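User: Please predict the structure of the protein below. I'd like the answer in structure-token form so I can feed it into my own downstream comparison script.

Assistant: Understood. Taking the following sequence of 174 residues as input:
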Amino acid sequence: MIDKLRYFFLPLLVILADQASKYWAFTKLRSGLDVHVIDNCFKLSYAENPGIAFGIFSESSGAMKTWTLAAISLVAIGLVIFFALKAPREKRLPVVALMLVLGGIVGNLIDRMWLGAVIDFIEIYIGKYHWPTFNIADAAICVGALLLSIDILRDPKGIEESHSEDRPKEGAID
């Protein structure tokens, strides 16, 4: 378990990058200024998302929503840490993926508790096709989920099979 603790630097990096970039967006973009990075493709534009992914629960209001979403985040944080610590020592990819997800969840939770909404500012679009505005925490969650999917596709039997060596064989006498 101690060797897995070294992976916890990754969510710290995600949180720091996320919060620093959101601070920049809050101070520079909130006035309505858009920064066009690549014309007709990529710009930085301030937005606040009071809901969760893709604006789900945006229409709800009140402190109860904030605390409910925070509670969901705390449960997710607990599950991510549990699965990261439970992963077999030789399986690094799922631990890295889970640490990216953890950093993203915490980064967005900080916003939610501080502002009651999550700051988004990255916009990617081609013509009229527009991806929902997001942030570094969201990107870390998506990359982590993608890496977990790759790991599952590479080894669909996952953790159960790698722990099967620890269990006695059927019919074996201890």
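That's the full token string. The beta strands are 35-38, 42-49, 118-126, 129-130.
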